[in-house]
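so the lab meeting is tmrw and i was supposed to have these ready like two days ago... anyway. pasting both below. for each one the top line is the aa sequence and the line under it is the structure tokens. i havent really looked at them closely yet so no promises
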Amino acid sequence: MSRSTQPAPHRVRSGRAAAVAVTAVLGACLLQPASAAAADPGSTRAGAAPAGATVLSGQWTRPWGITFLPDGKRALVTERFTAAVWLQASNGSKKKVGTVPHTVPPSPSGGKGGLLGVAPSPTWNGTTDKDVFFVHTAASDIRVARMHFDGTSLRDYKVVLGGITRGGDHNGGKLAFGPDGYLYVSVGDALKRNLAQDRKSLNGKILRITKSGAAAPGNPFGTRVYSLGHRNPQGLAWDSRGRLWETEIGENTWDELNLVEPGRNYGWPACEGSCSKAGMTNPKKVWHPDQGGVPAQIAIKRDVIYVTTLLGQRLWALPIDGTGKAVGTAKSYYNGTYGRLRALAKVPGADELWLGTTDRGDNRDRILRITLK
């Protein structure tokens, strides 16, 4: 499939046609190396394979983000269209704790946006530190906002970074604190592809900011920009060596898994997948969208990158090694069993993931507990 200059048609495929396309390739090796070189050698590290899935809670409507509070027993969960924030406990109970003001979801006819990522302060305790951060689309822009959460309810909305160009799609939206204590934000190109290469724009970038929204010290260009050349990045996670990995929805041909380093250019729109253009950093792995692709979010546990997929309707497990090279045999789980999968988080201190289905219909999505062996 050739790369188009228009917004990617496969991003809005759904229903029977998408299911047929996915089913037709289940027997194939669906995760491809990012270059034409020989396949990677076998893994040198033991991983953690999903041993089973159980329903942790139900009656969700498009959960987008799951992030644990520091106690590791409770997580905050965002719903994209309702702008609601929920407190999900490990015993299966859940409670709505508020909504994020000024959130404007996409129109019923399509598009992406609404309430997206969530990230509690690394030192959140509900008393001396109540800060929780969100990414959401407002009427005219994408915002990073801070609210206070005391363990019971949300209040005190404040924009720490606004004015980011909003699109009908490609808004990114993942938010996570890194090992360095700074806040990382994934922002898509807002369907304005050339913004990804414009260093003055915050679109098509991974941002690294302070809690006040300022550029974090040590950023490569002295601005909020950490890396550039991204199309629609939605997954961020760090491995045991402190390296940042990112998943990115491509256009017509290749979705990407990238190892993100400061100041690097990841190619879009000049490159989709690997290319030989000078100054561009190639992905570590790529997916074809109709062959298990359209990656959403990632979590890393015991040197395995877990990737949820939308069109692919499966969870990938991809071993990595110490060189920064994706290695070993990629395996997929739950192929088509639960439908489209997006939200994903690892449970602190346990061999367990929480995984959210999406787009099954109002009050029909679920959060699954995935046990790793």
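ok protien two:
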Amino acid sequence: MRASLIQIAVEPDESVDSRRRRVASMVREQQGAELVILPELWPVGAFAYQQFEPEAESPTGPTYEAMAKAASDAGVWLHAGSVVEKAADGTLYNTALVISPAGELAATYRKIHRFGFDKGEAVMMGAGEDLVTVPLPDLTIGLATCYDLRFPELFRGLVDGGAQALVVPAGWPARRREHWTLLARARAVENQAYVLACGTAGTHADVEQAGHSIVVDPWGEVLAEAGAGEEVITVDLDPAKVASTREVFPALKDRRLGLPTPR
């Protein structure tokens, strides 16, 4: 399976509508790929908190509409990053969208771990509760978002749900870039799965972004890594490598904690 990660530059002088059109065009250019991945909250910027409420939308709102058409035109599975979702009760969520090559909404994932401690996303948004895996034709992906990367138990749950690749869109700050690459490799090694971590470039509300989107294989080897600016990286994923890694070094079989208790 060929996957492309589009590391989008999010800058304050570009309108949300203009960015949607530009990103849709970039998705259409990835016609050689089977899976395309976008970053977290790219329509507004992960740290542009003042934009969350006015730009909130439903999972089938304007971002979905633009990305669904682009995915259909390109004939790709599209992980469209995440949007600020406004639920029926008014609660905001950081919600990822997965769109099929037919332009249909295949899955959504509400971010479980909200960043900010006592401000920003942590107090403005609700927390998701559900682990989400999506079976693609050749590969099952597990969904996580940005700050989730720091919580390994989530990824164990995704692997238990059949995930062979872990997709992590993010708006990760440049000042913690070393954590980003370290944690992406750690999640790949401990779960013996591909990690596809797609970040943003540019500056969100004066917060410089790390960029450096990265793809790591099940043995922990970096297959591709972007620089700091807007960039597309493309890799070929081999589902058989997940199975062979787990067979040659069957560490997952030795787990003793976090497993269901026998009755």
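from a quick look at the 2nd one: The mean pLDDT is 96. The first strand starts at residue 2 and ends at 7. will dig more after coffe
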